C-alpha cells in the first residue's frame, strides 16, 4: 500500500482551474469529472477550481471548488450549467492581464480551457503570454464544440458533435416522416454548426433527407444565391415529375457566408461594425453594389445581417434565417414557373422552416461523448504533471474500442496557421496565428458516400429513422458515421512510418552493399521530391475555405 508520504513525494499537490468557453456542448461536464478523478487519484490534496461564468468568472476570480458533492448532479449531463459561460473571449490586453492576475493570485499550476477553435486559439496566445511573464500556470485546451469544426490530423472529432448529430437526426427523421405523410410541404431545416457544414453533413448521412446544401460545395463552385435557388427548384421539379410534392432540405448554419456575394456583403458590414458604425446607419454606408444586394434581400434578412458581431468579430450566423431566405426565394421562383407553365405544372409550392440549435446542445450526452470527455479530463492532468504549456489534450483511433484509443498531448501551435486578409479597399494585409475552422474534405471517402447516394435521396424518399440516443443495448455505442468511415489515426500512422524508418536504418547499417545504398538514395530522393511538391502551399484561397 502506498503511504501518504510517498504520494506527496512523487506527486506534490497541484492547483488547477477550469472554465467553459464557447457554445455549450454535450459532454463538457465530463471533462471536469475526468479531471477531478485523475487529480484525486494522483494526490488527494490536489485542488480543482471551476470559474463560474466562463471567461468573465476568470477575470473576476469567481471560483467554485469542485468536490464529489458538487459533481454528483452533473456527471453524464448536458449543458454547461455547472459553471456557465459568458463572453467566450480572452484576447484583449486587459483580458489577458486579468486572466494572468487571477492565475497568479490563486497560485494555479494549470488552467484548462474547454471550447472550440476560437477558445483554443485564445488558449495558445494566453500560454505564450504566461511563459513570457514567467507565470507558472500551464494552459491546456480541450476540443469541446458541437460544430465538429476543430478537426485536423490530431483531433478526429470534438466532444458534443456525436450527441448533437444524433439528436438532430432524430428530429430530422421525424420531419421526413411528417413530410411524406402529409405529402404537401417542403421543410427547410437549418442546423447550428458554425462556418463549416460538419453537422449538416453527418445528419444527412444519418437521416437521408432529400437534399443537403453544403457550404464547402457552394464555396468551391462559387454558386450565387440565385444559382442555389434554381438548383433547389430543379430538385422540386424532378420530384414533382414523380408525383411527389413534399421534401426535406438541410441547410448548414454557415451557408450564408459560403455564397460569394453574401460573403462580400457580410465582410463590408463587419468592417463597418469594426469602425463603430451604428447598426441603423450601416445600410447607408454600404458600397453601391452591396447596397443593391442588401435592398434585394427580404426585410427580415436585412435586420439580421446588421446585428452586432460575435466575440470573434464574425457575423451572428445563428441569428440569420438562411432557411427562410431560401424558402422565400424558392417559393417566388416556383410560383413564377407555375405561372409560366413551361417547367412546372404541379401543386402550389408550400414550405415550412425550422432551425435546430438549442434543442440539441443541451441534450444528455451520448455514451461516446461521455467517455471521450472523461478521458480528455484525465489527459489534462497528465499534461499539467509533465509541466507542458500550450498543449491540447487529444485522443486518436476513436472509431475503435476504448481500450485501443491513443491518448496524446499536442502543441496548440501545431494546429495554427496565419492567413492574411484584406480588411478594406487599399488596406494592408493583416493576419494572426489562429486555429481555423476545418471545412469538410470534399475528397474524403465519407463525402464520396454522400454524393453516391444523392440521387436516391432526392427521388426515392429513402428516409432513415435512427431514433433517440441509446444508452444501453446494441445501439448504445454507435459513433458518428463520418468518424467510422474515415480512417484517420494520425499518431498510429506516425508509428508505422517510424517502424519503416527503423527497418531501413537496420538494412543500411555500415557495411551494406553499394547496390543497396544506391537503391536507397534513389528511392529517398524520389520520396523527397514527391513530399516537397505535396507540402507546398497553395497560391490562392477561396474566400472562406482552404482546400488541400
Describe the protein in words.
By secondary structure, the chain is an alpha/beta fold. It has 2 domains: 15-159 and 365-435, Rossmann fold, CATH 3.40.50; 161-257 and 321-361 and 441-479, 3-Layer(aba) Sandwich (Rossmann fold), CATH 3.40.50.460. It is 46% helix and 11% strand. Strands 3-2-1-4-5-10-11 form a 7-stranded mixed sheet, with helices on both faces. It has a 4-stranded parallel sheet with strand order 7-8-6-9, sandwiched between helices. Helix 2 (28-42) links the parallel strand 1 and strand 2. Helix 2 (28-42) crosses helix 17 (367-385). The longest helix is centred in the N-terminal third of the chain and has 22 residues, at 161-182. The model is unreliable at 422-429 and 538-548 (pLDDT under 50).
Short description:
The protein is built from 21 helices and eleven strands. By secondary structure, the protein is of the alpha/beta class.
Radius of gyration: 26 Å
Profile the largest sheet: 7 strands, mixed
Number of helices: 21
Q: Any guess at the CATH architecture of the largest domain?
A: 3-Layer(aba) Sandwich
Beta content: 5-15%
How far apart, in Å, are the first and last alpha carbons?
54 Å
- Number of extended strands: 11
Proportion of helical residues: 40-55%
CATH topology of the largest domain: Rossmann fold
What's the number of structural domains? 2
Shape by Cα distribution = globular
The CATH C-level name of the largest domain is Alpha Beta
Q: What topology, given as strand order, has the largest sheet? A: 3-2-1-4-5-10-11
List segments where confidence is low: pLDDT < 50 over at least 5 consecutive residues.
422-429, 538-548
Mean pLDDT: 89
What structural class do helix, strand and pairing data support?
Answer: alpha/beta
Oligomer: single chain
Amino acid at each position: 500500500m502506498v503511504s501518504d508520504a510517498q504520494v506527496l513525494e512523487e506527486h506534490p499537490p497541484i492547483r488547477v482551474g477550469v472554465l467553459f468557453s464557447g457554445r455549450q456542448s454535450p459532454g463538457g461536464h465530463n471533462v471536469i469529472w475526468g479531471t477531478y478523478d485523475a487529480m484525486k487519484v494522483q494526490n488527494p490534496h490536489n485542488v480543482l477550481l471551476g470559474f463560474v461564468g466562463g471567461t468573465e468568472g476568470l477575470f473576476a476570480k469567481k471560483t467554485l471548488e469542485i468536490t464529489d458533492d458538487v459533481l454528483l448532479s452533473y456527471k453524464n449531463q448536458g449543458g454547461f450549467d455547472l459553471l456557465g459561460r459568458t463572453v467566450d473571449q480572452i484576447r484583449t490586453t486587459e483580458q489577458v492581464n486579468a486572466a494572468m492576475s487571477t492565475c497568479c493570485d490563486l497560485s494555479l499550476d494549470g488552467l484548462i480551457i474547454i471550447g472550440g477553435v476560437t477558445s483554443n486559439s485564445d488558449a495558445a496566445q494566453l500560454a505564450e503570454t504566461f511563459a513570457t511573464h514567467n507565470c507558472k500556470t500551464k494552459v491546456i485546451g480541450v476540443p469541446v464544440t458541437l460544430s465538429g469544426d476543430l478537426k485536423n490530423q490530431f483531433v478526429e472529432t470534438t466532444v458534443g458533435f456525436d450527441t448533437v448529430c444524433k439528436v438532430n437526426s432524430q428530429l430530422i427523421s421525424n420531419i421526413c416522416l411528417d413530410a411524406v405523410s402529409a405529402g404537401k410541404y417542403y421543410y427547410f431545416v437549418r442546423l447550428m454548426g458554425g462556418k463549416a457544414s460538419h453537422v449538416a453533413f453527418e445528419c444527412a448521412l444519418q437521416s437521408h433527407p432529400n437534399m443537403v446544401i453544403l457550404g464547402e460545395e457552394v464555396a468551391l463552385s462559387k454558386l450565387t444565391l440565385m444559382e442555389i435557388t434554381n438548383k433547389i427548384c430543379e430538385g422540386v421539379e424532378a420530384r414533382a415529375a414523380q408525383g411527389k410534392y413534399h421534401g426535406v432540405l438541410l441547410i448548414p448554419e454557415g451557408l450564408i457566408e459560403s455564397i460569394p456575394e453574401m460573403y462580400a456583403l457580410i465582410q463590408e458590414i463587419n468592417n463597418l461594425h469594426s469602425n463603430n458604425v451604428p447598426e441603423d446607419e450601416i445600410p447607408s454606408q454600404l458600397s453601391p453594389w452591396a447596397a443593391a444586394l442588401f435592398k434585394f434581400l427580404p426585410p427580415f434578412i436585412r435586420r439580421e445581417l446588421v446585428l452586432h458581431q460575435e466575440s470573434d468579430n464574425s457575423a451572428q450566423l445563428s441569428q440569420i434565417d438562411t432557411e427562410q431566405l431560401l424558402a422565400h426565394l424558392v417559393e417566388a421562383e416556383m410560383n413564377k414557373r407555375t405561372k409560366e407553365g413551361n417547367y412546372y405544372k404541379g401543386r402550389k409550392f408550400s414550405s415550412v422552416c425550422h432551425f435546430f440549435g438549442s434543442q440539441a446542445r443541451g441534450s444528455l450526452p451520448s455514451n461516446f461523448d461521455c467517455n471521450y470527455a472523461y478521458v480528455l479530463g484525465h489527459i489534462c492532468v497528465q499534461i499539467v504533471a509533465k509541466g507542458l504549456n500550450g498543449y491540447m489534450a487529444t485522443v486518436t483511433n476513436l472509431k475503435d474500442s476504448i481500450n485501443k484509443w491513443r491518448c496524446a498531448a499536442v502543441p496548440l501551435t501545431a494546429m495554427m496557421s496565419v492567413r492574411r486578409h484584406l480588411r478594406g479597399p487599399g488596406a494592408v494585409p493583416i493576419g494572426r496565428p489562429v486555429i481555423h475552422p476545418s471545412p469538410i474534405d470534399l475528397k474524403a471517402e465519407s463525402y464520396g458516400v454522400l454524393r453516391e447516394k444523392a440521387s436516391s435521396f432526392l427521388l426515392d424518399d429513402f428516409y432513415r429513422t435512427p431514433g433517440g440516443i441509446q444508452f444501453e443495448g446494441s445501439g448504445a455505442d454507435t459513433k458518428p458515421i463520418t468518424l467510422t468511415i474515415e480512417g484517420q489515426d494520425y499518431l498510429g500512422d506516425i508509428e508505422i512510418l517510424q517502424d519503416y524508418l527503423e527497418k531501413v536504418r537496420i538494412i543500411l547499417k555500415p557495411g551494406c552493399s553499394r547496390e543497396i545504398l544506391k537503391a536507397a538514395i534513389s528511392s529517398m530522393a524520389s520520396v523527397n521530391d514527391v513530399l516537397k511538391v505535396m507540402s507546398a502551399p497553395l497560391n490562392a484561397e477561396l474566400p472562406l475555405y482552404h482546400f488541400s
